[in-house]
Amino acid sequence: MLANYHMHTSYSEDSCFDMEDVVKTSIKRGLDEICFTDHIDLMTGENCTFPYKSYEYDFLKCKEKYSDKITLKIGMEFGMQYTTIPAFEKIFARGNFDFILMSAHIVDNKWLYCGAYQNGKTQEEYNIGYYEEILRLVENFDNFSVLGHLDVIRRYDTQGYFPFEKIKPIVEKILKTVINKGKGIELNTSCYRYGIGDLMPSRDILRLYKSMGGKIITIGTDSHCEAHVDMDLQRGLGELLALGYTEFCTFDKMKPQFHSLEKAVDLFSKSH
Hints:
Elements: E1 3-7, H1 19-28, E2 33-41, H2 52-65, E3 71-79, H3 85-94, E4 99-103, E5 106-107, E6 110-111, H4 123-140, E7 146-147, H5 164-180, E8 184-188, H6 190-193, H7 203-211, E9 217-220, H8 233-242, E10 247-252, E11 255-260, H9 261-271
Parallel strand pairs: 1-2, 2-3, 3-4, 4-7, 7-8, 8-9
Antiparallel strand pairs: 5-6, 10-11
Helix pairs in contact: 4-5, 5-7, 8-9
């Protein structure tokens, strides 16, 4: 089983990759299953304008057309803030999802990617503030499958490395809540192409999650274009094996399905 559970199409503002082209490329690259996780990010009080009916229609069309070649699942990446939980409850209720990535790209109505949230804060303030927002989300929202790129703040931290020991207590609280709720985390292989210098989440977080009994983990490339479809999937699978994980997950109707990591690594090496 080779799967990619973080894939964007032209339904995401930062991608122009047509959904059917994603499917065709995934088949060519030997993937057995993919899940579409297009973005919805909302500011406090903002109305959702995502064209879900069209998204679902295109998905179902592709699912039927390519059913003998690949398994397709429908999901979304919910870019949430604590203040937008009510809006996302409504979005989830309207959909028919297999999988939901919960991420935080915005804190206090300020984007991370451009430094708006970090501006005017010390490195410790914006790091702790980010993880506090994640904790509030996992404590107060249940309709998600896994946490997307848990420590994505590192990607946008212009001040460099921030010691894990300073965030460990709050990360432990996040992971404990995730595990107790029967949710999981993802390994996001975009860490390689962005040159972060570690995995995402970090090896420290992945070791901690495993030591706390965490079992549900998905793997995705955060694909936005053709080159990303299977980029570094094999490396990511190998890293999880090296860290002592034995299984990874796909999802069906919001329920995890477990697969052998060792078999996936072996299959990837044979097919690529």
